[in-house]
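CO-FOLDING WORKSHEET

Operator: S.A.
Ligand of interest: zinc ion
Run index: 456
Mode: holo prediction, single chain
Checklist:
[x] sequence pasted
[x] SMILES validated
[ ] output reviewed
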Amino acid sequence: MTQPPSSGPTTTRALRGRAVTFRADPFLDDPAHALVHEDDALILIEDGRISRFGPFEALRHTIPDGIPVTTYPDSLLSAGFVDTHVHYPQLPMIAAYGEQLLEWLERYTFPTEAKFADPGHARAVARRFLRELLRAGTTTAAVYCTVHPQSVDAFFDESARLNTRMVAGKVLMDRNAPDDLRDTAQGGYDDSLALIDRWHRRGRQLYAVTPRFAATSTEEQLDLAGSLLRQRDGLFMQTHLAENTAEIAWIRRLFPNRASYLDVYAHAGLVGPRSVLGHAVHVDEDDFCTCHQAGCALAHCPTSNLFLGSGSFRLFDAVDVRRPVRVGLGTDVGAGTSLSQLGSLNEAYKVAQATGRRLHPAQAFWLATAGGARSLYLDDRIGTLAVGMEADLCVLDPKATPLMAQRAETCETIEDLLFILMMLGDDRSVRATYVAGELVHDRDDPAHTHPAVSFR
Ligand SMILES: [Zn+2]
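OUTPUT RECEIVED:
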C-alpha cells in the first residue's frame, strides 16, 4: 500500500557545466534577452533546492568543505522538462496504427485502460512510465490515470517513492464509454475527493480533477467536477478541448445550449487558474480571449496532433502579446509518439513552420521548461535555474549521436546548440536527470542512479 511521505532529501551537491535558463518569457520579450546562458556555471544544491547559481569562478568559495564537484563537460544544464499533458496508462499502446481520435479511443485506448482495474498492472506500468519520463529529462508532468481509483494510488505511490513533483488524477467518465470504464457522477465525485484527501499536497504530489472530455461526462458529472475544485485549495483541472473536427461536431450535438466547446467547461466552473486544456487545435479568437481572462492553460501536443491527423495548434495566435494565453507542451502519449520533450519540440517547430511561423530555440526550450511550469502555476518552484527553486534538473548532451556531434562542431551560438538538441535530440541526449537534488537517471552509469528508480 502507500508509503509515508518522503522526509525530504538532504544531500548537498555541486554541479558544474554550461547552463541555460530564463529570466523572461521569450514570446513576450526578445528571445536573446529572455534566455540566460552561463558558459561555466555552478549549481549548488542543498536540501533539495538550488542554493547558489551563477559563474563557477565567482561562486566556488561557497561550496561547503568536502563536497565534490560533479562536472559535465560538453553538456548543457537545464531545469527539468515539464510535460503538461500525458496519459500514463496508454504507455503500453503507444504507436497504435491507423485511426483518428474517436475510433482510436474505441479500438485501442479503452481496452488498454480497462486493464488498470488490476492494481499490480497499474503499479508496473506507473513504474515503467516514470522511469521513461526521467530518462527523457522530464521531472514534472500533468498525468491522466484511468477511471479506476487504484490507478491513481499506483501512480502517486511510485511518484512519492521517487519524490517527483507530479500532477495527476482519476479520469471521470460516466457515459459514452464501455461498461467497465464508466463511473457515475456521484461515485466519481466521492472517489476523487477521497483521492484528493489521500494525495493532494502530500510531499510533492498534486491532484488534478480529470474529466476525460465533454463527450464522456454528463452535465451532472461536469458540474460535480466544478464543485470538487471548490472543495480544497490549489487543485488542478485537466481535460481535452477541441482536438478533432468529428469530436467537436459530437460535442455540439451533446451540448446544443452552449456557445462553444470551451463554454461547456466554463459553464461547469472548470476554466480558471490551474486548468489545463489539452490540444485546443480548433479554437477561435473568442476562446483565446476567454482563456487569457480565465488564466487557464493550453497544452500543445504536436506529436499527437500529427500522429492522429488532428490539425495544427496555432501557437503564435495563442501567445499573442495582446492577450497571451499560458501554453505548455504535452507529449500526450499514447497518441503522442515520444515521451521526449525534445521530440515534441522537433514537431512543434515543424507545425509552426507549416503555419508560416518560426519557433525560436529559446521559445521552444521555454515551452518545455519555464513556460510549462508557468502554465501549471508552479513557476515559483520549478522550471528555471535560480536560488530557491526545487532542484529538478536535466543534463543535456548536444553530441549524443555521431550526427549530432558533427553538426555541433559547426555550432557558433547557444541558440544554434539548442536548435540541434531540439531537432536531432531524444532520450539519448539526456545525460542525467536530478529530482529534488537526487540523481535519478545517469545515462552512462545506470547502476549509480537513485535506488528508488531501479526495478525491484
Ligand atoms: Zn490526451
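REVIEW:
Residues 119-135 form the longest helix (17 residues).
The two ends are 15 Å apart (CA to CA).
[x] output reviewed
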